[in-house]
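Internal ticket - ligand job 363, 3-isopropylmalic acid:
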Amino acid sequence: MTQHSLMLLPGDGIGPEIIGEVRRVMAWVENTHGVTFGVTEGLIGGCSYDAFGLPLTDETLENARKSDAIIMGSVGGPKWDGKTDYDKRPEAGLLRLRKELDLFANLRPALCFDALADASSLKREFVAGLDILFVRELAGGVYFGEPRGITELPGGGREGINTHRYNDTEIIRIARVAFEMARKRGGLVHSAEKANVMEAGLLWREEVTKLHAVEYSDVKLEHILADNCAMQLVKTPKQFDVILTDNLFGDILSDAAAMLTGSLGMLPSASLGESGPGLYEPVHGSAPDIAGQGIANPIAAILSFAMALRYSLDMGNAADQIEAAVGATLEAGYRTGDLMSTGMHEVGTKEMGDGILAALNEQ
Ligand code: IPM
Ligand code: MG
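stdout (structure tokens):
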């Protein structure tokens, strides 16, 4: 029997609730696909800070490194806002995990399930069939650039400093991922930056252009300014296939695109390096306002597990089944509060999990 090792990092807020539903789907895959998942669980974010004084310990990091795939819930919450040093806040644990494992390629598919085309903030005709893949650079840019910090100014007052920087190697390796993905999809890459105001954006544009000319001229490449990309996403989102962008613009643009699919609670993500385990996490945050109430949408987490099956465990077949089961459950009218509309059947986290498991068993 094939054995895979999985690291689960439920994290804060709604993280433990949605990862609870992932566990049930994992058990279904074990029972039906002749695999076993050796599961290690760890703390990340505020809960790790409370237990150990750090948002990610070396031990958790090393356990994550040894696993085949890491599934994370979410980090952060008001409990820790402003109460800890900047480098000890919950988000710093996640950023350290991404950086230490060099997970530079963040894949964020924004897919509109047909059953949800009316739940989007845009009219059905603009979003039905939407299928965009964000390829977000995840290990560089302003998230990690030095120098950074808050300094006292000599004449009084303070200054906050962050540095946005990218070198050619970093740009080329993420652009390559976008072109490779586009080849398997619609053959179109939009590369989004701000070459009009940022040198790092200009270098980005030049390096992407060169790589395209030398190795990927079969793929169609469009350069787009990131602000225009935001506007086009809410105007005519179906014009996009793959959107290649940096760490910060990718963070912002993918949240905007999430709403096109019905809810932020729908978007999964995969963060991959050149080798080693991938990290799979929902795009949404810890939703502290609804944490602990059993009403969070577990779909983004479950779809993230499906991405782990596809990209890290070579089980694309099981991933297809889970994605189909999510679609069927939505077709059957199951809606968590974030997706709710009249005539639908409002359910909590666990009932959504029940629905997905029932759909899996019917396949
Ligand atoms: C995301 C999140 C993270 C980010 C936070 C939690 C650090 O917003 O994955 O989109 O900014 O990358
Ligand atoms: Mg974000």
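Auto-summary: The first helix runs from residue 15 to 33. Residues 23 and 191 are 36 Å apart (CA to CA).
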